Amino acid sequence: MPHRGLVKVCLEEGVFFLTGKDFTNAGAASSSLKGILERLGVRKDIIRRTAIAAFEAEMNVIIYAVAGMMKYRITDTEISVIINDMGHGIPNIELAMTEGYSTAPDYVREMGFGSGMGLPNIRKNTDSLTVDSVVGEGTTMEFVIQLNAVN
Amino acid sequence: MDLHEIVSSLSLEVTTPELSLTREVTGGYVSDLLSDVMGNSHAGNIWITLQIHLNIIAVASLKELSGIILVNNRKPDADTLKKAVAENIPVMTSSLPTFELVGRLYALGLRCR
Question: Cα separations (Å) of B47 from A139, B16, B56, B63?
Answer without folding.
Answer: 32, 15, 10, 11
